[in-house]
Amino acid sequence: MKKTGLLVIVFVAVSMFAFGQKGSKVGHINSQELITAMPAAKVAQDSLELFAKSLRAQFDKMDKELQAMAQEFQDQQQTMSELVRETKLNEYADKQKRLSDFQTKANQAIAQKEQELFKPIADKAMAAIEKVAKANGFNYIIDQAQGGILFNDGGNDLLPLVKKELGLK
Questions:
Q1: How many domains would you assign to the chain?
Q2: pTM of the model
Q3: H-run or E-run covering 28
């Protein structure tokens, strides 16, 4: 809530400053739509999905082993001594913790891989946005994908110009 309020205040202040300046030109773009339109983004997304799929397969394998262990314990617990039962429960708890740790680390690895794959694409898009903005005399560009738009009365959408700059349709 505080973040939204601060965003509103900053946007209003920037808007007042921008519109108060003689000759200021404000444009907007949806950076997410631009990045999605870039062919490199499709390649990166496919690579990320393949990476995530391999981690998911490993997780599923570990999870099946854990379930099999639980079933075996349940089937045999009546015939186990207290010491064996306690040992099996500890083994199960350890395996369950390893599975949970793997899931956490896998999620972190996927996020890191996503950053690694998409940063060059985002940098290229940003460079094109800056180039188009400068070439067309814009002073401010507002990114619609980040939710920074409170009111948009048409404005100047740079998406077609930046797509053209990148050679996209």
A1: 1
A2: 0.71
A3: strand 26-29
* Direct distance between the N- and C-terminal alpha carbons of the chain, in angstroms, rounded to an integer: 38
The CATH code of the domain that includes 98 is: 3.30.910.20
Cβ partners under 8 Å of residue 143, min gap 6: 28, 29, 30, 31
Structural domain for 6, as ranges: 2-166
**What are the tens digits of pLDDT across the range 25-65?**
888 889 999 999 999 999 999 999 999 999 999 999 999 99
Q: Identify any residues that bridge with 140 across adjacent strands, giving them in sequence order.
A: 26
> Who's near 150: CB < 8 A, 6+ residues apart?
8, 11, 12
Q: Give tens-digit pLDDT for 101-130.
A: 999 999 999 999 999 999 999 999 989 988
